[in-house]
Give the backbone structure.
Amino acid sequence: MKYILFILSLCCTLFTQMSNAQSAATETWTVVLDAGHGGKDPGALGKRSKEKDIVLDIVTRIGAYLNKTDDQIKVVYTRKTDVFIELDRRAKIANEAKADLFVSIHCNANEKTTPHGTEVFVMGPEKTEANLAVAMKENSAALLEDNHQDRYDGIDPNSTEAYIAFSMFQNMYINNSLTMAQFTMKYMNSKVGLYDRGTKQAPFFVLYRTAMPSVLLESGFISNLSDEDVLMSDTGKEKIAYAMYLAINAYRNETEKLNVAPVAMKAVQATAPPEDNTEKQTDNKGVVFKIQFASFKEIIASTDSRIKNLKNVSYTKAGNFYKYYCGETTSYKEALEYLAEVRTKGYSDAFLVAFSNGESISVQDARKLSGQ
């Protein structure tokens, strides 16, 4: 009963925040940059560095890129100095700023020195023990806060059983959060080049009360010597900041192109970022054809060998799986031709599907509507 009341209270809070954000919408596009940890909370510790120092430096560099290049983007920081900021206060800063996007920057760590690479998280129920372990490590910062049990609805950040409540909670901004996560991994791969650990879901305190699309970047493992070298160096931090700058701009351009307001996110299909120099068709006002070629239990990185050679890859969540599509086009003939090509790439069971105004329809009806 306690957890049910928690979910009901949380939903009411989020809907109130959404209404306030809508009523105060302006032309300025706002991003909140959150440097994890700070002050008495050092975060993860490497052999030669502290997480709180690295992420603050990275966030400052991201903000500098954004401020230099676009007058229409407003940058808000949860902290600009080495101070301790409570996790729920970070979300409050974002909500009060009526932000369009929340980006939290962190470094990962492990008891072993071999784990390495970059991963991006969005708010959601834990999919694996490893995902939950990352969230619990970051959420443990709440133990340094006064009255942390009251702040987080009685959830003990060190109790796996307490996280049952999160399994009932689905972020209503999940589609756009996933889109931002995909752009993040795309540019982290191309500009930084650390090992791609993928895009994942997990229950983070800092994300679950934000009333906007939100992502948390684990930029690398501070416990791994090679990753720590990158995270400590000016060159490495500059590359990470530039990658995040590109991801934020790509996300902004994508959502503006689709003309989607945050409140409508759960009706929007999350789309993997297109490869550079590839023109993507996104006219959802008419009929489009796609090839459904696979379904996966996890979100697949855009650089994964299973999808990187396919055009216009996108996906939707269906139950516990993600349906993957490719080859979006308004031409039935082009779709048939590309279907044959996809089947030669190893997806012999791939088939044609169609959508009208974003809604699934039969291929036969799609041909009638489009006169093909």
About this structure: Confidence is low (pLDDT under 50) at residues 1-6, 15-26, 259-285. The CA atoms of residues 279 and 312 lie 9 Å apart. The longest helix spans residues 234-258.
